[in-house]
Amino acid sequence: xxxxxxxxxxxxxxxxxxxxxxxxxxxxxxxxxxxxxxxxxxxxxxxxxxxxxxxxxxxxxxxxxxxxxxxxxxxxxxxxxxxxxxxxxxxxxxxxxxxxxxxxxxxxxxxxxx
Length: 114
What we know:
- 45% of the residues lie in helices and 24% in strands.
- The chain has five helices and five strands, in the order H-H-E-H-E-E-H-E-H-E.
């Protein structure tokens, strides 16, 4: 059984996907609906390698602190390790998936990593 916050996020992702006809939110909901052991785990060096400066990256899983971030990017994820959040905030910005969905419902210029 998933916790109520996760269930609410899944419902909101699906609703936003249908309302705005944006498949990215449906894909994120599908990834987050998996058991927590099957969710994506991404390290900072991977985010740095596969993203462009000024871009928004979404990770439907957990971001870990292995490596460094050299670009000014916004990272939205289901969860962050404390060290990863600190490293990202020193160079870019961390937000939740719900915050990204609210601020960018059409998911423009968003890259999925993981």
